[in-house]
Amino acid sequence: MSLQPIHHTFGPHVSGRYARKADRLLLTPWTWKHTVETERLRSAIQEQFGGSVHLFASGREALLALLRSLQFEQGAEIIVQGFTCVALPNAIHAAGYTPVYVDIDKETLNMDTQALQGRISNRTRAIICQHTFGIPADTARLRHICTEKHIILIEDCAHILPDKAGPDAIARQGDYLLLSLNRDKALSGMTGGAIVDCKRSRENALCTEEKTALPLRRGHIARLLLYAPLYRKTRFVYGLCGLGKMLLFLSRKVGLLLPVLTAQEKEGTMSPQLHTMPEPCAALARMEWPNLQAINSHRRARTAQYLAAAAERGWKMPRGVQADLPLQKFPLYVEDADAIRTRLKQKGMYLDDGWTGAVVCPRSAHQETANYTAGSCPHAEYVARHILTLPTHPTTTEKQAKKLIQSLSSLLG
Questions:
Q1: What is 31-211's CATH number, 1.20.140.10, 3.20.20.100, 3.40.718.10, 3.40.640.10?
Q2: CB–CB of 303/317 below 8 Å?
Q3: Which of 36, 87, 398, 405 is 20 to 30 A from 113 via CA?
Q4: Which CATH superfamily groups domain 291-412?
Q5: Which residues pair with residue 329 across a beta bridge?
Q6: How confident is the model over 30-69, as pLDDT tens digits?
Q7: How open is the CA angle 60-223-262, to the nearest 5 degrees?
Q8: How far apart are CA 351 and CA 6, in angstroms?
């Protein structure tokens, strides 16, 4: 077994350069009160997408800010797809609205636009369109439906950010764009989120939400920054007599590492308090932003590598997967996904990314509290049972992907 794990979640964006930048930021806490990098990040996002840009401490807080700024009536319905993250229904509930789930197309992992028609009611106010793992949703069709029904379209671009090579369907049709800069997203600042108000229709209300947001505590910011150097160092010794595992266990035990989702969030609770984008996290995201083309090219290379292997071996996958897509993860369908992940884990390959085992991910999230009714999205439930995702992130090498393919070949045939 290699000392370095093949993984989804062990600092997927954390290269040596990234870790050194985080180290420098960690050692200069007096700069955290500035907003220079935050404003530069805002400008970079605005240059790419236009509109007005509003930054918050996370994608889920950015979504909450947007939903509150829209000032719908209490109980208004916000449509989301099955097979999504619990952060979305949590933000919807925190805003005083009701999430409504629509089943997905198994060939794209995105919202089934035919199923959508039967879920729209006179209380529907917005649809959140998710480009799952970077596979583009049918935004043209969604735009037509939203225009016809006078519904707001929010594009969730957490899993993919388009570059000069596309995909052209991304970030073109939404009234608002939602960006997440968490540790495993298309680009990472360790945390952070943005709303792009494409038509500037709620610019003043969003500015108010941003201005009244509170800064994160310094200890919280320090732990976010510590994640990068700690995971990078741990990766190199992870397979050495359990040393890496012990380091991460102890770091979590003493509170040095922050969870992606808290226990309260998994239970369906989100604080209504918004927070500003931390300046050092903005600095990390801004460092990555000019490299979007290179990061996406890397993801396209891994996507093409897995796609060729899957086609050659007859592995089952969504037909929406294309070689030119910069996928955040590469999806396969297998008969016993949990058993396959367990076997791969024994070989130092950690493929449990949280997007498995439940319609509202992760599987530890409380489905009923998230307003999901079992059986209402059968295709999403099938995907949750059978999906196995392969890493495409910037620190997954061609050699690691080849090793993973070889291991899968022995398990899947």
A1: 3.40.640.10
A2: no
A3: 87
A4: Aspartate Aminotransferase, domain 1 (3.90.1150.10)
A5: 391
A6: 999 999 999 999 999 999 999 999 999 999 999 999 999 9
A7: 40
A8: 8
